[in-house]
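Reopening closed ticket. The problem is back. First fold of the pair:
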Amino acid sequence: MNLVYAGPDGHVYDHPDYIALGRNGELVTELLEEELIPLPEGATLVSLPDTRPIGLHAKTGAMEVVPGEVNAVGALLPQGFTRLLLPGYAKADKTKVLPLFGYTAVVWKDGGFYVAAEACDDPERWNPRNCDPDELEVKVQGLLTQYPENRLYQHLSNCALGYECLTASNTFLNRWEGAVPVSFSCNAGCFGCISEQPDDSGFPAPQTRMNFKPNVDEVVQVMLEHLKTPESIISFGQGCEGEPSTQAKIIIEAIREVRSRTDMGYININTNAGLTDHIRAIVDAGLNLMRVSTISALDDHYNAYYKPRGYTLKHVEKSLRYAADRGVVTSINYLIFPGVTDREEEMEAMIEFVRRTDLKLIQLRNLNIDPESYLQLIPPAQGERYGMKQMLEIFREELPGVVLGSYTHIPGDLAEMQKKHLQHG
């Protein structure tokens, strides 16, 4: 399997003199055949700026930094695929940080690109090619014309057309999971926040956070337009906003108004779940689905990344337990990273956390971060590292009633996924 690199011209090449390597955290490691799958449709190859690829010299077997003016290459995976290894690289300039993406090891073999990844969900629903730009443009203009005073539609139009956000696009295309952002503030200071970064962070946020507070009527209009089919999902808590539960009053009034007019579809919240009293009230208003973002079930790791303001991981757990006890289908948005998530202590803590909270789904999401910055931020490993592939196998064995996936599913779909898992298990 040949090492892949980017030349000075920006083109991607394979190097016949070097065998590709990957990284599990800071550890450079060989790639195994069973860890590789063909480059998925919708994946993107990117050059890692200010880096040099590391490979095994094909003749000597020595691990070397590839000479010349070349950069390491990684793959950005579409939804539905879980990264198993980082690209094998070293930084040429250690003061520089990589843009906030989830870089995956990529190799050239058998005449094509392969990546160190595993398919964990059906990628078809979130495949970018299913979003026709011409149709989207028409739909956006249609809703902007229909609701000229609705600031949410104006905001989401930029998310859909400018950032090409698929959840925002779904809001206009009236399908699957759509977005209804509500909050410009947050009760956490996430190290890897994609919508707001301090000026001295070193890496700019890739998108802009909303800067206004919508009124209830604006929220209700978006919700009612989207909740028109039994399988539709409308979601509070998007990448372009802060923590939605900080605007609990708006959410509660909007849910009650919408549910007084239709019982169609599902209402979801993507949240850090730290404001337990707010979450309880939102659940009681008629919430159907809840996805809670977490990076760890260990306090020191969680606190280092999220920098929670006025809440702890115990509050998060109480919110999840309350929602599950009242029939809300709960999941976690689990931000995973090779060499960290597969640590023995991380796995043990997360398995127990999932059991205590009665989760139905773990959404495995590749953490978008500069690896060196993240590894310096969090506590060092205490036990063995199992590797991501074995970690997934252990989770499936230890949590047979929990679906491992990549995105939010309605209860019927979850039941089918669980049935298939049990049949194959």
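Second fold of the pair, where the issue appears:
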Amino acid sequence: MTDSKKNQLQKTLGFSFNIAVLIGGTIGVGILRTPGSIASLLDNYWLIIASWLFGGIFVLIGANSYAELATMLPKAGGSYNYIKRAFGNYAGFLSGWFDYITNAIPPAFYCIVISEYIIILFPDLKNYSTEMAISLLIAFVLLHLSGVKNGSTIQQITSLLKVICFFALVVACFMYSGVKLAPIPKDNSLVQIGLLFGFFKSLQLIIGTYNGWNAVCFFAEENDDPSKNIPKSLYSGVLLVIAIYVLINVAFFYILPVENIAKSSLAAADVANIIFGKNGAIIVTVISIFSLISILNAFMMIPPRILYGLSRDGFFIEKGTTVNKGGTPIVALLVSSFFSLFLICIGSFEVLFSFAAFTSIIVWGLAYCSLLKLRISEPNLPRPYRSLWYPWTTIIAIIASIALLIGFVYSDPKSFLIIIIITLISYPLFLVLRKKKK
């Protein structure tokens, strides 16, 4: 039997790792890039800040539901366990693979982007972008093959450095006295349809920068005290991310007016150039590299946990449950890394990323629905943590997910078509796997 003692994950992770993986898996370079796009869509200081808060509240409401689900079923792989328990094997199989693909795309992307940022610092390396990306991937595979503890230590160090870098940037903005916050122009366009569309479009970008907030749930089986650690880390981690995102936006607008930010493709670099002079771009590049190393490390650990869970339930190869002495699901890590290597070599991410935005919203929405279903169908399941203001918060999370999904379908029908095709193909594949399992 594959789920023997030797193939069990080790309970070596605690609260500090949870916070580190949540921050590490969420805050990337998105927050340094998106303020410009959002300012061009909304063009109103208070509306921009409100949209960041709105995105944060949506994630916080989601964390409230996930805290109950992850403590009720503390198993490797996160969301798909709850969906499978509530809606059966096929729903679990489909959502598990959607979730896997969503989380297996980022490592390749981050390897490529880190190599691009290194080239900004060292232009002579510009012909070696792909080689650097592959070397980075190999280095992180070797790190995680050496054991979970090493991966956890790197996560905690890089996440702490990331938070320090971001707060230092915020403090530098507020200490700078050269430019005061420009008066906010009176804007009567709030009622315009175009602005309403801009608000939803900006929310799509904002949800993208919050993606990764539920990272702790993938490691529930390896947590030394999931009942206490998961709810505590979900709430404190998400609140910390919201605080960083809102503070960065306020700090940027302290230096530059909305009109200037709206014209910027990398707002952080423009702000840093004003504060630090010509070294500004270098400082932002270094912050970006720290951010990306932390998020890459987190996403090297997440997909193997999903694949381990899928393998244990017969939705992938039996060997997928193999765990080495260091507690790493070794086959799942190697399969995920080969997938990343393949993506680095193709190097086309636009389609994959819009696809990932869809699948994450679908999986979250199904997880919220599974909370409602399990409360009704299995009221006696042990629930160490109960969702606050249930069922209203969960219903709000479901409605918000449906609204976002409709917005995504409207703005990107191609990705939605790909999802429908994958769903249709998945059922015969599921039946084949189920026969093999029998």
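Update: turned out to be a display glitch only; the data is intact. The longest helix spans residues 280-312. The CA atoms of residues 358 and 408 lie 7 Å apart. Please close again.
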